[in-house]
Amino acid sequence: MKENALIPVLIADDDPGMRLILRKKIQATEGFCVIAEAATGDEAMALFEKCAPRVVFLDVDMPGKTGIECARLIQDQNPGCILIFATGHEEYMGEAFEVYAFDYLVKPFRLDRLEQTLQRIQARLAHSPMAPLPGPRALPIRKTAGRLMLRHREGVSFIDMMDILLVQREERSTVVYTGKNERYVLSETLSEMESRLDGDIFFRCHKSYIINLRAIRDITPYGRWTYVVRLEGTEHDALITHEKYEELEQRFA
Hints:
The protein is an alpha/beta fold. Helix content is 29%, strand content 32%. The strands form 4 sheets. It has a 5-stranded parallel sheet with strand order 2-1-3-4-5, with helices on both faces. Strands 10-9-8-12-11 form a 5-stranded antiparallel sheet, sandwiched between helices. α2 (41-51) packs parallel to α3.
């Protein structure tokens, strides 16, 4: 695999022995590269902003910010970042999956368990075929969507609402992606944007994503209680929680 195709990983753990174990196993796995290590939560966030890793391994109990606090901040900056908790505290598992963790490894864990996680990460990032969840049959559109005025960094644009495929949080901003390969960075919140969109067509599938229901291509497993939504017309995808997936099934019934 070419160097520029390696998956960059950040390890955050205050135990140098655990960092060593993780680093050796990750570096020995084809396709991955450990680009930074942190011993505290604050250091982890500084390195995340500097290095932009694709995968972050987090301990829960660290000096400064906890792993859970780091995960919330990372989600706000890049909701597509893959978060793996590696911790001796099993009782935080519920909180970890509230921030859409990809996996939760309880110390001491077997190296083959870690290897399984790394393989699943590669499959996720490669969009390897996975058994799709039952998909929707058809979507009745009950009213015509209009046009929107978007105020963004470059000025003001007027777009057809139906051109919007995805709205997501990204680098603490709200970003709109359209089927015309347009990208708009907005100052308004995701909730404010949601209130302007046609609720028959657009769906808040996750705290960080709004999707155009007519653009759904497929839905596949991601973590333990989260799924990936792939959309027609864009390389960007979204996450959907298990609860929101059940709500989506009712809408498509």
